[in-house]
Amino acid sequence: MNRKKVLIVGGYGAVGVQIAQILHDRHPDLDIALGGRSLGKAAPFESERVQTVVVDTNAEDPLLHAGDNVSLIINSVNDLQDRLLLSAVRRKIPLIDVTRWTEIFEQSIAKLKNTELHAPVVLSSGWMAGTASLFAMLQSASLQNVAINIHALYSLRDKAGPDSAAYMDRMTIPFHIKESQGSRLVFPMTDPVKVQFPNGYATKCYRLDTPDHVTLPKAGHVDTASFRISFDSKASTYTLVGLVKSGILKMISGDRFRSFRRSLLYNPGTGSAHHVLIHLKGRDHNGRWVERRIAITDPLGQTHLTALGAAVQAEKLLRLPEDEPLAPGIYYPEDLPDARMDTTAIINFFKQYGVLISH
Q1: Cα 97 to Cα 148: distance, rounded to the nearest angstrom
Q2: How confident is the model at residue 315 (pLDDT cuts 50, 70, 90)?
């Protein structure tokens, strides 16, 4: 790999630091710039290949002071006005973004459709930087008429950055899911499904609005995709369900109560394992219905799994020959598999970092 430079925006945060460390250790010839709002902040780990730069996603041109010769940008902080996104597009720099909830995700796509692209834009805002969607796509690629159900067990003791609590502001807003009969409007924290996770914890999981259910059905063989979540405290889960169902959460949906809403489920701890369970159902090449199950556990938690999801996508772009770049356009995390990085290589990448994967 020729010498390249990756800019990680939010490089001081819980996810950004881990992305930087993973790519730094795997690519000895890679330079890394950590972008943040604070001028002169020390790098989180020492290396002559790591520098810090000022990048403020709220600025009119966030990349104004980011330096030259950036080969790839990875964004791990909220970019609500798409300023960083459009700044990267203007500079023709490939971008991977792992931060957008569905409304902002769709807002960004709408803007990009009216913009000429000269580099790939990878919108990887699905669960854990699209890791769940990536594995769902890998395991469903040989099937047709696929229904994908993703379930996540979120530990309230896990490490988390403040942006991770933004979903609490979406709990009263209905969203559409695609089903075989067409599109249907559903509400967060409804339609419970009983799930037993890899650690043996059995609980009900409830609908949550994530980009996974938007991007996965874009694949021709996927008819429908749903995402559901539960927390490792049943009391907290049922409290949230009750607040949504009773309408109380909607009553406190304004800016005045934002801190209170987020505090309901945002009290990050020192770390805990993160679990994802994916159920697939589809027709094989003989037309028979088959079911598949993928269990994913990261003992180091959701920030680590998110960092791995971003890093595996970055490696695809970094390893491409200069004379065979990825064509300009909008990509999703499940678009990753290709001849250079097959299913076995992707699974081995995650396992190398302690992620447990079973079928």
Answers
A1: 23
A2: very high
HSE-CB for 210 with a 13 A CA cutoff? 28
Output the six-digit token pair for 223. 């008819």
**Rounded to an integer, what distance in angstroms lies between the CA atom of residue 38 and that of residue 53?**
9
Looking at the 3D structure of the chain, how many domains does it have? 2
Residue 135 falls inside a structural domain: yes
Report residue 342: phi and psi, to 5°.
Answer: -85, 180
Based on the number of CB atoms within 10 Å of its own CB, is 201 exposed (0-12), middle (13-18) or buried (19 or more)? middle
Q: Specify whether 65 is located in the same domain as 167.
A: no
Reference 215, options 330, 303, 312; nearest CA is 330
Q: Has residue 1 got a pLDDT over 50?
A: no
217 and 330 inside one domain: no
- Pair of tokens at residue 100: 């957008």
Work out the average pLDDT over 314-327: 88
Question: Could you tell me where the DSSP H helices lie in the chain?
Answer: 14-26, 83-90, 102-113, 127-140, 212-215, 234-246, 248-251, 258-263, 302-319, 343-352
> Which domain, by its residues, includes 38?
4-126+303-341
| pLDDT, mean over the chain | 88
Q: pLDDT tens, 137-192?
A: 999 999 999 999 999 998 877 666 555 555 556 777 899 998 877 889 999 999 99
Q: What angle do CA 156, 96, 296 make, to 5 degrees?
A: 40
Task: Tell me the C-alpha distance between 64 and 167, whole Å.
Answer: 30
Helix (H, G, I), strand (E, B) or coil at 233: coil
Nearest residue to 32 via CA among 45, 41, 40: 45
Write b or e for each residue in 236-272: b if 16 or more Cβ atoms lie within 10 A of its Cβ, otherwise e: bbbebbebbeeeebeeebeeeeeeebbebbbebeebb
- What is the tens place of the pLDDT at every residue in 188-205? 999 999 999 999 999 999
